[in-house]
Write a structure and sequence with these properties.
- This protein is mainly α.
- It has a single domain, classed as Up-down Bundle (Four Helix Bundle (Hemerythrin (Met), subunit A)).
- The chain is 70% helix and 0% strand.
- The protein is built from four helices and no strands.
- Helix 3 packs antiparallel against helix 4.
- The radius of gyration is 19 Å and the shape is elongated.
- It holds the Pfam family MAPEG.
- It catalyses: RX + glutathione = an S-substituted glutathione + a halide anion + H(+).
Length: 151
């Protein structure tokens, strides 16, 4: 049976989940804004109505814009599952120390991933490490949710 106290601001695990989720929402927004900024800086627009001048042409292949777009898409593919599984994990009443550090690991790793992928490009394995830290933490939470579920 679900304990309502688990989804209360009195629960430090739930508060931590809320905080990191909000940070990651802002991070996704920032990546979208950065993508738009890169489009303006490189005059790379995918839609004719967005062209700033009749001399410009629709372009899809600027490497800087594409790098930022890939980082943003990677966020959507990895942060959105964290939102769902993180909340379900909170409902399993995990140990606070472990849960809080898993949430921190996902949040920090996703921020680092974008920084080393799209802002200050750093050679591998930096991006791979950041990616797999977040994936491993999220997968661990998913496995714990599965283990806690009564099938």
């Amino acid at each position: 049976m679900l304990n309502p106290a688990l989804i209360s601001l009195d629960n430090q695990v739930f508060r931590c989940y809320l905080g990191w989720s909000a940070i990651l929402v802002l991070k996704i927004f920032a990546a979208g804004i950065y993508s738009g900024l890169m489009r303006f800086l490189t005059a790379t627009f995918a839609n004719p109505e967005d062209l700033l001048s009749p001399k410009l042409k629709v372009k899809f292949d600027d490497p800087n814009v594409e790098r930022v777009r890939r980082a943003h898409r990677n966020d959507l593919e990895n942060i959105l599952p964290f939102f769902a599984i993180g909340l379900l994990y909170v409902l399993t009443d995990p140990a606070a120390f472990l849960a809080i550090n898993l949430f921190r690991a996902v949040g920090i790793a996703r921020i680092v991933h974008t920084l080393v992928y799209a802002v200050v490009v750093v050679p591998q394995p930096s991006r791979a490490i950041a990616f797999f830290v977040a994936v491993a933490a999220t997968a661990y939470m998913a496995l714990q949710v599965i283990a806690s579920a009564a099938f």
